[in-house]
Amino acid sequence: MTAWTGPYAPTLLAFEEAAGAFVDLVAQVRGDWDRPGLGVWDLRSLVGHTTRALVTVTTYLDRPATTEDLTSPAAYLVGSGSVDPGLVAGRGQQAGVDLGSEPAARVAEAAARALARVREADPEALVETVNGGMRVGTYLPTRTFELVVHTADVAAALGLDADVPPAALREAAALATQVVLEQGRGQDLLLTLTGRADWPADLVVIR
């Protein structure tokens, strides 16, 4: 029986939906892995970077933590904003290389491993992430967020509309809002969404 019940059930559902949507989209790629992806990344690197949202789940579940340093998904994403963009770009490029000759199959395998491990995990367990110790149930929405955002990026690179399931989209949108509030930009967000101001160019959750 899964421990992802009660308030944790929507968190697991959102991750399952996001992972499934990403796998289904990557399966539509027909060989042109060198086409432009996002920024400095070609499509292979973009897919590789996105796959890290699955791989890190599996990795961190094997790294128990003794302290809870971050108590919200928003705090994790705010902390990630200070990471060297060059380091992120390099990791994405290497992750793309690691996908090998059958990228879609490697993505599907990574998703299957991550989902199997998460379903068996205790959402209250503490794991050591790159930004500090977190509960699994707190960390997982950050992975859903990455999957949803970058699935949209992959779809754009392929000239397709992103088809993100509702639970995953709600999780990602809610987390983006929380990050904006953590950044002290709630007023800017409210004015923009109510048509009273243009979207500020510097109001960005991740790049």
Automatic annotation (TrEMBL):
GO terms for molecular function: metal ion binding. It holds the Pfam family MDMPI_N. Residues 16-155 form the Mycothiol-dependent maleylpyruvate isomerase metal-binding domain. This is Uncharacterized protein (TIGR03083 family).
